[in-house]
Structures are given as C-alpha cells and as structure tokens.
Amino acid sequence: MEEIREAPRALREWERVSAHSHIKGLGLEGLKAKPVAAGMVGQTEAREVAGVVVDMVRKGKFAGRAILLAGPPGTGKTALAIAVAKELGRDVPFVPIAASEIYSTEIKKTEFLTQALRKAIGTRIHEMRRIYEGKVDELSIQQEPHPYNPYTKVPVGGTIKLSTTDASQKLKMDQSFAISLMKQGVETGDIVQIDVDSGRVAKAGKSREAAEKEKVDLTTVQIAEVPNDPVLKHKEFVYTLTLNDLDVAQSRAGVSMFGLLFGGSERKEISSETRAGVDGTIREWVERGKAEILPGVVFIDECSMLDIETFSFLGRAMEQELAPIIIFATNRGVTMVRGTDLKEPHGMPLDLLDRLLIIRTSPYARNEILEILKIRAKAEKISLTDDALDYLADIGAQTSLRYAVQLLAPASEIAGAKKSKCVTKGHIERARRLFVDVSRSVKHLKEFEEKMLK
Ligand SMILES: Nc1ncnc2c1ncn2[C@@H]1O[C@H](COP(=O)(O)OP(=O)(O)O)[C@@H](O)[C@H]1O
Ligand SMILES: [Mg+2]
Fold it and tell me: What pTM was computed for the model?
C-alpha cells in the first residue's frame, strides 16, 4: 500500500458527512414518501419533489437546470442533498462545499469550482487486479485524536478479517484504508473487495446471512454472495474514482513535499492539458467498456454568499455535456447579490433563479424530531431510556433539531462517566445545563447588557 496519503482531504470530507451517516436515500415508494424510511423522517413534500428530480435526472431531462433548497437551519437541507446522491446509485459522488470556502482558498475561484465539479463526476473502472475479497468477519478500527485538531477523533488504522467459503485471512489497515471503510459504512457481515496495491475498498453488499440476522431494510441494502477461493486473488476489481482524482494523479509529478504534508496538493492549479488528457483517456475507456461515468452532486451551502461571477460560471457549467447536479441551499430570503447592487430572492441573479427548481423545507413537528433522534442515537450507538428520548424531543421542539441532536454526544459522555450503560433524562438535563442553546445564550447577554447600562 502507498506510504504517503492525502489525509487532510479525506478527513475533511469525513467530518462533513458523518452527521448524516443515517441517511440512505429519500425513502420513497414510487413517488410517494413513506413517513419513516431509508433514515429519512417527515419532510415528505420536499422528499417527493426531490424524487421527481431524481427521476428527471435518470431520464436525462434535467440538463441545464439546478436545485435550490430553501429553508431554516436544521430542516434537513444537507440531509436531502445527500439522499438525492444516494438515490442516484452506488458510488455516486457527493461533494459538499460552503460558499465561503470559494473565497478562502489560495487558488482562483474558477479553479476551486472546476475541482469541485470534477470531484462530483465519478468514473467506475473495471480492471484485472490483485485483490483481497471476502465477507467481513471482524472489524476493529482504531480511533485517535485528529492530527490538526486533537479534540476530535478520527480513524487511524485497524484490522479486518475477511473470509470466503474456503478460507479466511486477517489484514492490517492504514489510515486512509480505515477512513475509506468507515466512509462506505463497511460493517461486519458485508462483502468487500480491497485492491492490494492501492488499498482501495469496494463494498459489494451485505451477506444474506447478516441481512437476515440484522433484519435490514431490503429496499436500501444490496445483498451479495460470499465469494469462494482464497481471500487473495487475481480478479476483476470494480472501483470508482472521480475525474479530480484522475487529474491529481496525472499531475502528481509536480506535487511538492509541502503539499503532501499540509494538504496543499489539492489546491494546486491543474493545467487544462492535464484535464484534457484525463478526459481523453476516460472517453476511450468508456468506448472500450472499461469505465462508466457516474455524474454526482455538488452541494453548495450558504449560496446567498456567492458572487455574480461565480453564479455565471456555474450557470455555464450546468449546460456542459458532462455536468454534475448542482444543489444550492440557503436560509436567506431577499438579499443583495454579491458583486452587484441588486437585491434579489436568495441573493441569486434572476437568470439563474429562472432555471432552478426550488424545494422548500420546513421545521419539524415534535414526533418527527423524536423519530430523527431515535435514528441518530442508533447511528451514534447511544442507548437512551424512553424518558430521555421524550425529554430530548421536547428540547428539540422548543429549541432546534440540531441542538437536540448535538446534546446526544455530551449526554452520552456524562452517562459514561457515571458508569451508566443508558443515557437517562438526568444525563440530558445535565448536558443541557452545561451547554446552552442560542436563545438562552442571547438572553444571558441581554441581561448582562441591561445590568451594564444601569
Ligand atoms: N428528514 C430528516 N430525516 C432524518 N434526519 C434528518 C432529517 N432532516 C434532518 N436530519 C438530520 O438532522 C440534522 C440537521 O439537519 P441538516 O440536514 O444539517 O439541516 P440543514 O442543512 O437544513 O441545516 C442532521 O444530522 C441531519 O442528518
Ligand atoms: Mg446544512
């Protein structure tokens, strides 16, 4: 396996999507949203509209258009965008960016955007490789503090035991391998393939036995057969790389040591010849049946902060033959379009607004918040008493879903410190006293100001 890897980039993406690891799709039946399905709860109208969009995309009828998700914070805009990518199929890339990032990098805005768009186009490649293949019997992932932020934990390595119908083998894994496994949500009972030379992981699905044992939702889980022969073999390996991965690999020769250590390599500008070269290769592979193209999703959060140049660049990008789906999200109403002196809805130029399909998201009812909390607790492997769950749902209804979700982790720490296996209402009360929500912090400062004025 490679010795040096670009951990920072993998880490950043890991942090962004882990809060939504429970989202497996839109949870639709036909075009109708089931109240709770595929990790999704409520927000049925928005999910149904998103389902129509997915249908249009599949039929090639969405070209030249984009989606705008408009709704208050914590109403599932990011969750919906991820669900759209999941609905489009396995290995379809999802690239989240915040509008403010475009201005904070040292590369040109257009280069940053081009990289984001090319990260959102996957190519599924079929190749004969040396691979490890089997059912995951044991999986132990070691977590350690983040190298640049010691207060968050990230996977650093671990071991995995694979078995076939004929043999089994235990393997050691390095960090990017561990991240790759966690990102794909690999668990015991899954069938995986691992490329020996690159450490790339491809998940084929869940074994029938594990699916039956865990009573998984068969509409969202792929079943795969346990392979035979030894674990290590020569076989067709199917893996997905993005156009940007290929661009970076092509231009590797010029990557400096600084880039490798500090993640600067992805910020390097990539020449248009390099990109043309990659496009040419992929076109040839597609023609030979060695690769398929998987257009994915670029999710641009806080889009009211984009400026007029960026909007026009994206408007042009949407019309390209090979374009990912762009999903914008905002919680702003009418506001200034950056770089102009015009006020427009959501701070977006009218010609772009015209081409958007707008999906509204609204705040959740208490019972929906309760359902989401249940799912999140399960994803974070936290067990709650019924009382605790009820209390947390009340908090969510009074403050915000996000605040309630965020109390799960500290409450679980408090329970752990008290050697309790379950999080109780008491532990949540304690977490709530320790961590105030926005309305309480504002009230606190107001009281303080009033005292100062006297
Ligand atoms: N309808 C939903 N079903 C399940 N989980 C949801 C739903 N809406 C939001 N969540 C979860 O609640 C949290 C906050 O939602 P998020 O998507 O970040 O909201 P927004 O992007 O609108 O601010 C996330 O962990 C998200 O996955
Ligand atoms: Mg969001």
Answer: 0.82
